[in-house]
């Protein structure tokens, strides 16, 4: 006498199309998350520069020379674009995840972007004044 139950058929979801065709917000989410990889890589580039700075002037000059190569410039341009997208998308997500506030969430988004732009211009102006 067999006491085990017969195997039941498991449900297999049909793969009728790619997931990004049905919901484009998935693509935006994945690009935002993927941009964090470039942010991490850029942080490692800066960390390498700090290590080279501690090793002396020849090592630091070699690191700076490596930053002027075409692949490095392409990497920096791509990293800049992804950082901009990452920042803008996080300011767009913030009102959706914040608790109910007595002010309009769009005001927070627009105010945050304006504050980030103003702060960036202020930092750029300060750096412009102190560089020889």
Topology:
Layout: H1 19-22, H2 24-55, H3 57-66, H4 70-97, H5 105-130
Helix pairs in contact: 2-3, 2-4, 4-5
Structure report:
α2 packs antiparallel against α3 (57-66). This protein is an all-alpha fold and 132 residues long. The chain is 76% helix and 0% strand. It has 2 domains: 20-86, Up-down Bundle (3 helical TM bundles of succinate and fumarate reductases); 98-132.
Characteristic key phrases:
single chain; about 130 residues; mainly alpha; 3 helical TM bundles of succinate and fumarate reductases; 2 domains; 5 helices
* Number of distinct helices: 5
The total count of strands amounts to 0
Secondary-structure element string: HHHHH
Indicate the CATH class of the largest domain. Answer: Mainly Alpha
Proportion of residues in β-strands: under 5%
Main pleated sheet: none
CATH topology of the largest domain: 3 helical TM bundles of succinate and fumarate reductases
Q: How many structural domains are formed by the residues? A: 2
Terminal-residue CA separation: 92 Å
What class, by secondary structure content? mainly alpha
Helix content: over 70%
Quickly give the CATH architecture of the largest domain. Answer: Up-down Bundle
CATH superfamily of the largest domain: Fumarate reductase/succinate dehydrogenase, transmembrane subunit
């Amino acid at each position: 006498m067999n006491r085990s139950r017969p195997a039941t058929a498991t449900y297999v979801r049909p793969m009728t199309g790619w997931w990004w065709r049905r919901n484009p917000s998935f693509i935006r989410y994945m690009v935002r998350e993927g941009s964090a990889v470039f942010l991490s890589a850029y942080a490692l580039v800066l960390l390498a520069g700090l290590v080279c700075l501690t090793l002396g002037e020849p090592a630091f000059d070699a690191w700076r020379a490596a930053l002027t190569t075409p692949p490095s410039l392409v990497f920096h341009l791509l990293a800049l674009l992804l950082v901009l997208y990452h920042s803008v998308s996080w300011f767009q997500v913030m009102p959706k995840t914040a608790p109910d506030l007595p002010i309009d969430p769009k005001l927070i988004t627009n105010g945050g972007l304006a504050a980030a732009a103003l702060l960036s211009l202020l930092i750029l102006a300060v750096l412009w004044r102190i560089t020889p």
